[in-house]
Amino acid sequence: MKKFMLIAALFVCMTGMAFAAGQQDVAGTETGSETYVFKYAHTQSPNHPRSKSMEFFKEQLEGASNGRIQVELYFSGVLGTEEEVLDMVKLGTVQGSRGGLFERADKKFLIYTLPFMFENESQVLRAMASEYGQQINESALSNGIYIPATGVAGGFRNITNNKRPINTVEDVKGLKMRTPPIDMTIKTFKAIGANPQQVAYTETYMALKSGVVDGQENPFSNTVDMKFYEPQKYLSVVNWQVHPDPFYVNPAWYDALSDDLKAVFDSSAKAAMKYSNEIWLGSEKEYYFTLRDNLEVNEVSAENREGFVQAVKPVWQEYVDSGYFTWEDINNILEIARTE
Asked: In 3D, which of 138, 95, 98 has the Cα closest to residue 254?
């Protein structure tokens, strides 16, 4: 009998604890006390502008959410290559990332990367911040990625190599150029006569040092951050392209947030991207000075640059013919970009 009473008492106690726990969960939901972890990764070093802007994001989001969202940051490719991390974001094992491969988020992002489309960085920023730019962000949801904001991945992209200075289109012909796995970049370098080689960002230094490739193209910041200039001899300033920098987020993780946390997350992401644009573009000149001190530098003249512009015109037409976007889309972006 005593044993029965003990078991009964234990059952009542456990039931009461379970009920209390249930009540606590409900109360937590009602008061918004649930917490979330946002695990983020990219391949740049901790000193890179992208990393600094994500430190800013962590501070902003944790503060604005009163600690209800905790941000874990992983830099320098410690969780994998850009491709691997983007796959993790789509699977939900990592909740966020920034980097290349924006074509995999949505092919419409390639409109920003049309060669020689923009005359300066301000034009790019206006296009990305526009209503049309927001529509491009939203289009990534169909591919399993939520994008709260897109910025610019550094300044204009320029070319380094260890063979010769590049002043004209003819100087590029035959060079084995490392390119990211971005269709637009590959097609552009084929159009100007190079031999594009797809190499992972984190493997580019060794590819340059070993001679697997002759050169690479990147903004000054990336070239310095990854020390790509060390096995190179020449920097040619041609200002051929600017890359977008979408903030990739797992949509299932985002959708699980309450409305107030979604608003806080989105505002923090936009603030971080604005900060990223400011420090990244602001730092390009200093990065250029580092390259100038280590490489032979030449700036392509306006006359010779026009030769590049003409050589890549078929690339624009090819993307229109393939249905990536229309000439109306292109002209819309150009009008937005060039309206002060």
From this structure: 95
**Region for residue 41 given its phi and psi (left: phi exceeds 0; alpha: psi -120 to 50; beta: otherwise):** beta
Distances (CA, A) of 228 to 23, 159, 286: 57, 11, 16
Per-residue pLDDT tens digits for 217-236: 999 999 999 999 999 999 99
DSSP states of 255-293? HTS-HHHHHHHHHHHHHHHHHHHHHHHHHHHHHHHHHHH
- Any idea what DSSP says for residue 130? S
Nearest to residue 67, comparing CAs of 77, 59, 75? 59
Cβ(265)–Cβ(36) below 8 Å: no
The distance of Cα 20 from the centroid of its chain, to the nearest Å, equals 45
CA proximity to 324, closest of 99, 100, 109, 105: 109
For residue 315, how many other CB atoms are within 10 A of its CB?
A: 20
Element (H, E) at 73: strand 69-74
- pTM value is 0.80
Q: Which fold has domain 35-153+244-282?
A: D-Maltodextrin-Binding Protein; domain 2 (3.40.190)
pLDDT at 14 over 80: no
* Residues 297 and 235 sit within 8 Å (Cβ to Cβ): yes
SS3 state of residue 306:
helix
Q: Which two tokens stand for residue 230?
A: 């060390």
Burial status of residue 334 (CB atoms within 10 A of its CB: 0-12, 13-18, 19 or more): middle
Whether CATH 3.80.30.20 fits 157-243+283-337: no
**Of 137, 214, 203, nearest to 171 (Cα)?**
214
Q: Where are the domains of the chain?
A: 35-153+244-282, 157-243+283-337
State the Cα–Cα distance between residues 277 and 271, nearest whole angstrom.
10
Distance, in Å, from the CA atom of 186 to the CA atom of 319, rounded to the nearest integer, reads 13
Confidence of residue 183 (pLDDT cuts 50, 70, 90): confident
